[in-house]
Structures are given as structure tokens and as C-alpha cells.
């Protein structure tokens, strides 16, 4: 459809259902107008990571960004550990930082695994 919206009718157990599909450009228009948390997170990612990467390098690689994030988190954990030891920061603060960094590193590793799994299916 020239407006970027297409209607489809599909049979279901409850009868014929009308489905509305939008094209990718209109999907982004909706997301960038939304104030939902998920949409705002997506907007922040696009504005802070994707667009600057495209401007600087002409492309964006989620895999490379995930590696950079994992390296950054590992360095942050090392610095936090050294700083905690050197400056004798409170144990509660160090434990909290360690817990946060461990969760972030685990998430990063999981995202990298998903990216690699996706490569095998392409």
C-alpha cells in the first residue's frame, strides 16, 4: 500500500480476523512518537549509538558494539575492584558495584550469544 499500511484477513477459530500491518518506516515513526519506556529505550539507543556510528563510520554493527560494551564493563569491573581496594571503599558499595557489573556482563554475553546464534541461521 502506498500509505505504508496493509490490511489482511485471516481465518481463525473465532472467524475471519482483520490484521493491520505497517511498513518499517511507519514503525519507526510510531516508535519515535511514543513515550513508553520501551520506545524511549529504543530511541536512546538509536540516538546515542546507532546514528553516531553511522555518521562516523558509515555503518553500524551490533556485534562490534556488544564487544565494545563487554570490554567496557570488564574494565569498569577491574577499575571498581582496584578502586575499592585502594581507597578502601565500603564493602556494601563494592558488593553492589560488583553485582551490577556481573549482571551487565552476563547480559552482554547473552546478547553476543544471540547475535552469533542468529548468524548461524542466516
From TrEMBL:
TM spans, by residue? none
Name-wise, this protein is: Bro-N domain-containing protein
Which segments constitute the Bro-N domain?
1-58
Domain of life from the UniProt record: Bacteria
What InterPro entries does the record point to?
BRO_N_domain
Q: What PANTHER family does this protein's entry cite?
A: BRO FAMILY PROTEIN, DNA-BINDING PROTEIN-RELATED-RELATED
Q: Which PROSITE patterns match?
A: BRO_N
